[in-house]
Amino acid sequence: MTSERPITLAATIERWPIAGSFTISRGAKTEAVVVVATLSDGTHTGRGECVPYPRYGETPDATLAAIEAMRAAFAAGLSRDALQSAMPPGAARNALDCALCDLEAKSGHRRIWDVLDRAPPNACTTAYTISLGTPEAMADATAKAAHRALLKIKLGGEGDAERIAAVRKAAPQSELIVDANEAWTPANLERYLTICADAGVTMVEQPLPAGHDDVLARIKRPVAVCADESVHDRASLRGLRERYDAINIKLDKTGGLTEALAMAGEARTLGFGIMVGCMVATSLAMAPAMLVAQGARIVDLDGPLLLAKDRAPGLRYEGSLVHPPEKELWG
Predict the structure, then answer these.
(1) Residues 132 and 201 in one domain
(2) Last residue of one domain, picked from the residues 54, 82, 115
(3) The pTM is what?
(4) pLDDT tens-digit readout, 4-52
(5) What are phi and psi of 259, to 5 degrees?
(6) N or C end: fewer C-beta atoms under 10 angstroms in the chain?
């Protein structure tokens, strides 16, 4: 998109309290810190939300600065295609790419899937995340969510066998996927994968640290293994074919919806299963990912369900069923 009028850019850091706390192997947090980019052509406004992730060296302040540094480029007519090479993949580009998509849809009085020549998205069943804790605490949390069809279990290394057993007992009917967040080691990998298989877990996400996962290519994997921290954009795909069965596409990693859609297409061509994931954030961050979620094997867009309060208007959740965004929210 190239606007006939200069586009103005604004950005802000927002803090959204989490319901309780959210804990993974790298630590716990009680709020989601997001950066929202707003683009305006003087008549219409587009928004995009991102979550800077310290694991990738990102901070809210640095992300805000990176977004604001693009102000002159947008005033000069920077297009969405040109944005892909003007900024590296990451949270800052994600917010701007999604804001441009939103602005393009609103200025053309169309939905974004029509702009992108895609079928309208359907509602999807999302995973619901159980935070890392003691086996007892995780069993309690799981029991309250056992009515949900798909649960994502955060693991952390030592004690994971007991956590898996406790969660499975608390939710005997739910499909389970687990996310180790790089906390396992080559020494315990095969044992934990076998334990997962025996418990009926259908996918294990990022068991080993990125860059230290070669052993996955040398073992028999009894459960599908999904790359998260090991995969970012299309450039990182081909080197993972022997190690992973699926990839987790997150817009904050790909740098926006534009690259995420292209990445999903190439990943399917290469034979990867598709998981669509998120950071803990509001519905504004989830909405663009609904387009990538169409046809994905696993959809994990529960960020707003983990917040004490979502933005309004937000996505409509009916239990674990998440519906496509209304135009007032995004796209």
Answers:
(1) yes
(2) 115
(3) 0.95
(4) 678 999 999 999 999 988 888 778 889 999 999 999 999 999 999 999 9
(5) -70, -35
(6) N
Containing structural domain, residue 26: 8-115
What does the buried/exposed string (b/e) look like for 190-228 if buried means 16 or more CB atoms within 10 Å of the residue's CB? eebbebbeebebebbbbbbeeeebeebeeeebebbbbbb
The answer to whether residue 111 is domain-embedded is yes
Both tokens of 288, joined, read 């663009």
Based on the fold, state whether residues 231 and 166 are members of the same structural domain. Answer: yes
300 vs 71: CA distance, rounded Å? 33
> Residue 186 falls within a domain, yes or no?
yes
Active-site pick, 106, 152, 154, 253: 154
Same domain, 200 and 308: yes
CATH number of the domain enclosing 13: 3.30.390.10
Determine how many CB atoms are found less than 10 A away from the CB of residue 45: 16
Whether residues 48 and 161 fall in one domain = no
In a domain, 330, yes or no: no
- Of the candidates 250, 253, 309, 327, the residue annotated as catalytic is 250
Is residue 152 part of the annotated active site? The answer reads: no
Cα distance between residue 279 and residue 210, in whole Å:
18
**CB of 226 closer than 8 Å to CB of 205:** yes
Within a domain: 2: no
| Phi, psi (deg, nearest 5) at residue 140 | -60, -45
pLDDT digits (tens, 9 = 90+) for 295-329: 999 999 999 999 999 999 999 999 999 999 999 99
**Cα–Cα distance, 158 to 33 (Å, whole number):** 29
Q: Is residue 154 annotated as part of the catalytic site, yes or no?
A: yes
Q: How far apart are CA 253 and CA 226, in angstroms?
A: 15
Is there a single domain that holds both residue 110 and residue 140?
A: no
**What is the spatial distance between Cα 248 and Cα 232, in angstroms, rounded to a whole number?**
9
